[in-house]
Amino acid sequence: MFGLAAGTSFILYLHRYTWVMVRPELKTEYGFSEKELEGLYTLFSVTYGLGQIPGGVVCDLFGPHLFLGVIIALWSLALPTVGLTGTMTGLGASRLAFGATQAGCYPSLAKMTRLWFPLRGRTVLQGLIASFFGRSGGAMSAMIFGLMLGAGLSWRSSLVTLSAIGVVFALLFYALCRNRPEDDAATNQAEVELIRAGETSKEDGSRVLSFRRAIRNRSMLIFAGQQFMNAGADYVYSAIMASYFIEARGVTDKIVLGLLTSLPLWGGALGGIAGGFANDGLIAWTGNRRISRSIVGFSGKSIACVCLYTSITHSDPMAGAWLLFATKFFSDWSQPTVWGTSTDLGGRYSATVFSIINSSGSVGGVVTPLIGGILLDRYATQEIVAGEVTKIVHYEPVFLMVGIMYLASAVCWLFINSTDSLDRPDNMDTT
Length: 431
Hints:
Helices cover about 75% and strands about 0% of the residues. The chain is mainly α. The protein has a single domain, classed as Growth Hormone, Chain: A, CATH 1.20.1250. The protein has a two-stranded antiparallel ribbon. Strand 1 and strand 2 form a beta hairpin. Helix 1 runs antiparallel to helix 9 (about 155-175). The longest helix has about 35 residues, at about 255-285.
């Protein structure tokens, strides 16, 4: 089950982060402006955000087995449709479809980790699934795409190849996954008791979270604001990183481009592992789940802010990439904290709580790229290069915006109480 969850997270990011390599190809082939490209990027986040809560509710009601098996296949089939047309309408429809089909994945994986993994050590496993395998998929996406382009494959054929991998994995997932340990004939009662040890909430009773109950929880509201900043800031890695190294750092070799673009994501992958161990280690040491979550979340985002501002002062592409590696390491150091806090706050409603949080992140994923596109166009300059007038795009304003979002996210973690569970009797509706 761990392998299936990790593989799902890997495939999700392997496919999602193809955009960072497709974006420069679309710009070259069709001459789209920065604002148009960021507009296309944000369409993914529109349907991704709108589909979060319905996906979480469906998963809480029926479990992750069938739901995840179907959506993995659907998003894999939607992936290469971006290469079927060069019109804004067609490309927009492709991005909308891709976002809608990926929407329910992480709420379902949050539910899956709560049902299958013991409370003690769960955050380490969530860090591995969400950050290490997810970010590794994103990192490998840029590297694999760069290798395929360097080998002479077109970007469209590269998308089809990655799509086929996803369809095969979807069939494997459906064949092997089970909703709960109790549903798996290979799991005995002693294993079930081990997995359930320390749980304070059960899967009986109502499986649908009241929206009223959710919005009355102060920590839930601050958590949603934190995720707006957290996910919104991530857009630079999934959308413009390749363009940044091409235009601001002069990288032209496709294989080198794939490597440099992937380095920040490898930082995120390793940071997710470290953050998971930091969470569970601090909880065991302090005995205080609330303070431990806040310390890890605050420290990660604060250090990431410092590393980001340092990275943009270096003109050497490799040095800049390694500093972005450090930035993403500490930014994603807090990613297991997001998963752990979702399961702490949600209890039996983990998928729904995670879907609400991810919806907030998706709003950030819509707003931030649109602002980023405006900034890139606004601060672009015309310069004479080799006797020709050339548009020079300046990325510093976008990185400044992202650093501010990191800092705001860090402050939010100081006010989030992960133990204020929506499963507690005093948090239940009385009407």
